[in-house]
Amino acid sequence: MGLGIAKFITDTVLGSVLDIVNKTITNKDEKIKVQAQLTELHAASKLQELDIRLKDKQGARNLYSTTNGVQRLYAIIFLVGYIIASFALIAMLFFPQEVPNIPEWGIGLIGTIFGALSAKVNSITDFFFGSSESSNSATQQVIKNAAKK
User: pLDDT tens for residues 68-98?
Assistant: First the structure.
């Protein structure tokens, strides 16, 4: 949340400063030079924000890398259960005669539970099994390219 506020303040301040520059500086060359400097400053703050986000994600992964494995076991059980539930629902679509007569409220409940599980699958998969190495190396390349300009 702190980064969101900082981003809002940075973007708002930059917009206000650019407006002031446009209104007060009359020399075209000087105006372009100041605008370029402000744009460069804004780009640097964006890169710093991205770096903070990547370090935060890596810190969260490192936090769970030294635990006793309960979190990984939970994630694996959750994912296996989700896969079984997915196959069961797909089987119900292809073999409707084998499905018992489910009341309307039961269908709604099953849909709600499956929707909630589906919303969490991506988070669990990314957190426990995802890797930020390729993302981190891509970010470092972007930083190097920005520094060259």
Answer: 677 778 888 888 888 888 888 888 888 877 7
Structure tokens at 149: 């300009």
Mean pLDDT of all residues in 128-140: 59
Q: Last residue of a domain, which of 20, 51, 66?
A: 66
**The whole model's pTM is what?**
0.43
**How many structural domains comprise the chain?**
2
- Tell me the CA end-to-end span of the chain in Å, nearest whole number: 31
The rounded distance, in Å, linking the Cα atoms of 149 and 142 is: 11
pLDDT recorded at residue 1? 46
Q: How far apart are CA 114 and CA 119, in angstroms?
A: 9
Q: What is the domain extent for residue 118? A: 68-130
Q: Apex CA 34: angle with CA 29 and CA 35, to 5°? A: 95
